[in-house]
Amino acid sequence: MNSRLSSVARATGLLNLYQCGSLAGLSASDAVTTLIHEVETLQMAGRKVSTLFLDIKGGFDKVNPSTLCGIGRAKGVNL
Predict the structure, then answer these.
(1) Longest pairwise C-alpha distance within the chain
(2) By three-state DSSP, how is residue 18 classified?
(3) DSSP state of 66
(4) N or C, which end of the chain is more exposed by having fewer CB within 10 Å?
(5) According to the model, what pLDDT value does residue 53 have?
């Protein structure tokens, strides 16, 4: 189910560009490289930069599949 949803989400542009976790082909090193690039880009522009890291174990255990499918259909995703 994860790989099917992942491919549909990629094809329809529903994934955030910075999403790395649980996606085939995107590793922790990809996430680190992206973070470093974004921080350095903002610092070069004279901006102050902060980061916040969250690891929410079981954060999506209560997702209602019917609601998720309804949202996907509303966005034009054929599930």
Answers:
(1) 45
(2) coil
(3) H
(4) N
(5) 74
